[in-house]
Amino acid sequence: MNLILSDWLRRGVILSCCILSFGSLCWAQTQENKVKPVVGGPINSAAHNDANATISASNGKSHDDAFVIGSDDVLSVNVWKETEISRTVTVRSDGKITLPLVGELQASAKTPKQLEDEISSKLSGYISDPAVTVIVQEVRSQRFNILGQVARPGSYVMNSSTTVLDAIALGGGYRDFAKQKSIYILRRNPDGTQTRLICNYKEVIKGRHPEQNIKIEPGDTVVVP
Question: Considering the entire predicted model, what is its pTM?
């Protein structure tokens, strides 16, 4: 009988300890879950999202001040929070683009930053503090010409690293009777005069005179006699 009482007492003590431990754990969890006051008042989630959007737009707004927009370039014009005005446009042959509310304006011969400022100025009469971003999506205005004994003579879009060898490849390669030692580039100088730059194709492909693999500039004409 005494053994049975001792066993019940032992079980009662263990049960009491478990109940006390569980209660302490619940109290601590409740204290942790209490909402702490935010310094400066509650956060407006919509305003917070708008601020993030502003930062993202600002970070993506990078320009090369040396780049000048030209005809056929494809521009992405974004007016923040104005989806009906924002659009992708191609600069026409007359150098102009057309936008809602803005109408026609000259885009060629301007940098993206200059065009942004002009669009913002014209929209300010309709929109309070317009935030405009102009990004050049495709550069099509920077072209060079290749003429003479190549498979496909014509005008080609270039990039910042196009060389004479690249130009000949774009033109489909030289023809059988091309004078590979006498290829030259005609380059117009700012004063209107022309410079003739020589490229000996055979020497260049052999690794000699690599400086003759001249980097092409917009408006250059490569002649393969």
Answer: 0.57
